[in-house]
Amino acid sequence: MIETRDGDVATREAFKLAELFKEMVDGHKDRVPLLDHFAKSWRKLQIQMKSLEESFSDCFDILQKIADCASATSGSSTDIGTCLSKIVIRHRDVGIKLGEWIRELGGGLEHIQIETNKCKTGVTQLDKAHGKLD
I want to staple 85 with a disulfide (CB 3.0 to 4.6 A). Which of 19, 67, 94, 131 is the partner? Predict the structure, then answer.
């Protein structure tokens, strides 16, 4: 090591490293509330989408009942019933895709929350260990 008038080079480098570590920990602490807010907002969206999926399904159940009633009558109502049945069958796929997307969103949110908790724990442990060294 080369010594200077300002002190040992290794000591100065250690202090720089400690400052960098502290900035990194503080940066992680600042990001955690943002990740929590992100997860909370998306969880709210997921709940609203589940409600939409249930409403969507209920509407098509009722529409199918109307189609069945129309098909059971005589005259031009049978054509209307057949047309409504086709609409219901085709649009149930949209409800299925919506349900799949909701489940994928839930899985992703679960992963984000697990990783955020791991990050919180790790940063806290690192901060405590660094505090002991000071």
Answer: 67
pLDDT in the model for residue 66: 92
By CB neighbour count within 10 A (0-12 exposed, 13-18 middle, 19+ buried), where does 67 fall? buried
1 pLDDT more than 50: no
DSSP bridge pairs for 4: 7
- Comparison of pLDDT for 11 and 73, the residue scoring more: 73
H/E stretch holding 4? strand 3-4
Backbone phi and psi for residue 2, each to the nearest 5 degrees, phi listed first: -100, 130
Cβ pair 119, 66 in contact under 8 A:
no
Alpha carbon 18 to chain centroid, angstroms: 34
| pTM, entire model | 0.63
